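Notebook p. 47: complex prediction with guanine.
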Amino acid sequence: MEILDGKKISNQIKEEITVEVEQMKERGEKVPHLAAVLVGNDGASLTYVGSKVRSCKKIGFESTLIHLPEETTEEDLLKQVHQLNNDPAIDGYIVQLPLPKHIDEEKVLMAVDPDKDVDGFHPTNFGKMALDMETFISATPFGIMELLKRYNVDTEGKHTVVIGRSHIVGRPISILMSQKGKPGNSTVTLAHSRTKNLKELTLQADIVISALGVPKFLKDDMVKDGVTVIDVGITRVADDTKEKGYYITGDVDFESVSKKASFITPVPGGVGPMTIAMLLKNTLLARERHN
Ligand code: GUN
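Predicted complex, structure tokens below:
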């Protein structure tokens, strides 16, 4: 069994980007500038955005955090989005999800300039991804593909079962895994909450990608020997004995499933850090494309 070490690989990617940023500076070029818009004070979102901004600083990017109050109106948020679209200093930006309930998420994401949409959430970018055109691929599916690539996991002709059909993970990773390429060329089943006999499907899978958000959902009796398991779940479970009052767990019962797996991602330290690295990669691409 080999651990797919997202922390290690994400550090490698960040080092590679740091070298490129240094070269940009030496050539007297503008360095990439990422902005993040956060509305409200959701605990997990604060952690993620803080981590994204810190990573920018570490690798030499410029970064701007725009933290708006929970009661921000949709109109004001749209104004902010247009301002970022028109600001030549900003190469790429993200609007952290979820947004407060009174704001129409779709409307906001549609307003983001596709050329600055380093999250890859705009329909133009999602469509290009689905058609295998040059675009911004969303950081989480992009990170999974990069992890499989760097560990040389063989996906060709394999049966991949994706659990979860979200717009930001399940749906795009099911498309990417089926596309031509290495990794890719996989036969994909996209399972979700209405799927019948999920266990029958996962037992046939060479690769299981779980993006469900149910702690320890995937057990060892649901997978075959030699399976590759990608755990995209990140759930906070309340626990008073922990310093933060919670611990983080994935969709996979790691202890039992890892005994049958050939490759497996841990949580934390698997897909999570890869997501941040690929957002930075997309921001670098945005800078290069804006030249
Ligand atoms: N919320 C959960 N994941 C993400 C992400 O990748 N980008 C943004 N903007 N919000 C998220």
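Notes: DSSP finds ten helices and eleven strands in the chain. Residues 139-272 form a domain with the Rossmann fold fold (CATH 3.40.50.720).
Next step: compare against the earlier run before touching the bench.
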